[in-house]
Amino acid sequence: MKPERVLELFSEITTIPRESGHEDPMTEWLCCKASELGLGCKRDATGNVLITRDAAPGLEDVPTVVLQAHQDMVCEKNAGVEHDFRTDPIKYVIRDGWMVADDTTLGADDGIGIAACIALLEDSSPTGRIECLFTISEETGMDGAEALQPGFFEGKTLINLDSEDEGQLFIGCAGGLNTDVRFRLVREAAQDGSVFVGCRIFGGIGGHSGDDIDKGRANALQLMARFLYGRLGRGFRLVSIEGGCKPNAIARECSAVVSTTRPLALKRAFASFCRDIKEEFHVTDPGISGEITVLKGNRKHPLDENCTRRIITSLFTCPHGVQAMSQDIPGLVQTSTNLAAARLAPGSGELRIITSQRSSATSERRAIAAKVRANFEAAGARVRHLYEYPGWNPDVNSPLLARTVAAYRRLFGTDPEVKAIHAGLECGLFLEKFPGLDMISFGPTLRGVHAPGERLELASLDKFVLLLDEVVKNA
Fold first, then answer.
1. Has 23 been annotated as catalytic?
2. Which of 172, 221, 234, 376 is the most buried (most CB within 10 A)?
3. Catalytic-labelled residue, pool 23, 72, 164, 285
4. Chain region(s) in the chain for CATH 3.30.70.360
């Protein structure tokens, strides 16, 4: 099993459309690979795929190892970039030891895990039985893991390949859920003498709403709400607001259109606000900026004053960011919430707001979700909770963990870090459906996941491949 082959396979994967909910091309590619290799393959009604390689002669008694990765990727791009994730290959470059997609997400989360599985299946070295599980729609609700039926795989030892820090072994993760908000829009004719103005905040770093939520990065949707809240009662009405994209990504950009009778005062206030946030986020988001433009042509009627006030106030007061730190593991975020996105629902006359909550404590996760719900219900919105998934509690006595730590020490002469992660992994659902599983998660170093500029460190890929090879072949 060679790192070069893993990278070659991942390069091929970057040409395959695999947006969450639209993984069919990826699923077909996996089934074709199994056929080419003469391996057992099955696919369930949801789209999960299991490829199996039987044990080599003499190794039939070696316990089966399950390797797991998810088929889908977060599809994010910079504003103004022409890229259709349903048809276009990902454009990337190799720069300074990293594989980088400058204008879109790269999809190494979790395409690199898929590539490692296929490379291991191709390798002719003798091993015990290997089962490679590829789930769907992990990024939008863990639909594939949720739909797994008992008996779909047989192994009792599972290695999840969806982590993003080489040298760290993960044995626990947060659980999560999404809170979906709908405002019915009430419009009226624009006030006499009003003009339409477009405000835009852009250039935020964004990032993963779990891994990066503690880094203090700007949330462009939250910032736009903050600016507009400060202008309530000063002669403007909201026409539209759109920002963010995915529940598991921090909003990098936000645009709002308003109808105002005082455009010059609004422009001056917005310019001052943008100077303030550039100073406020000069370390975490050095490229954050804003622009304001008087718009020409016909526009939708603005929202009435009451609707404008309810939406802006509730966006401004919605909790966002770290809510609690772990009392057991120093430096680990325990509970957080992400004000992820707002956009007009086409043809519905509604504004949809998406938020996500995470916690390794079920009670805290549900409490912060209830607080988000209460915030928006007080403003007259319809709110529902979606896609809840459990956390994964650490097992420090895991035999697989002990073997992996020993393998890392043999290979690299040092001990890895053993950690829990604030991001969500499918392991919690696996444990519910397959009690007794012994699990661990590791991967190469990725940065900027869930945002344009996502990158894979190639040196860490080499070490990841060596470790995976060593653990599987010494199971």
1. no
2. 221
3. 72
4. 177-389
CATH of domain 3-172+391-473: 3.40.630.10
User: In the annotation, is 72 catalytic?
Assistant: yes
CB of 352 closer than 8 Å to CB of 182? yes
CATH 3.40.630.10 domain range(s) in the chain:
3-172+391-473
Tokens of 36: 């080419």
The catalytically annotated residue of 138, 211, 212, 285 is 138
Q: What is the pLDDT along the chain (475 residues), one digit of tens a residue?
A: 899 999 999 999 999 999 999 999 999 999 999 999 999 999 999 999 999 999 999 999 999 999 999 999 999 999 889 999 999 999 999 999 999 999 999 999 999 999 999 999 999 999 999 999 999 999 988 999 999 999 999 999 999 999 999 999 999 999 999 999 999 999 999 888 899 999 999 999 999 999 899 999 999 999 999 999 999 988 899 999 999 988 989 999 999 999 999 999 999 999 999 999 999 999 999 999 999 999 987 777 999 999 999 999 999 999 999 999 998 888 999 999 999 999 987 767 999 999 999 999 999 999 999 999 999 999 999 999 998 999 998 999 999 999 999 999 999 999 999 999 998 899 999 999 999 999 999 999 999 999 999 999 999 999 999 999 999 998 8
Topology given in CATH for the domain delimited by 177-389: Alpha-Beta Plaits (3.30.70)
- DSSP 3-state of 349: coil
Task: Mention every residue, 6+ apart, whose C-beta is less than 8 A from residue 420.
Answer: 170, 171, 172, 173, 326, 329, 332, 360, 394
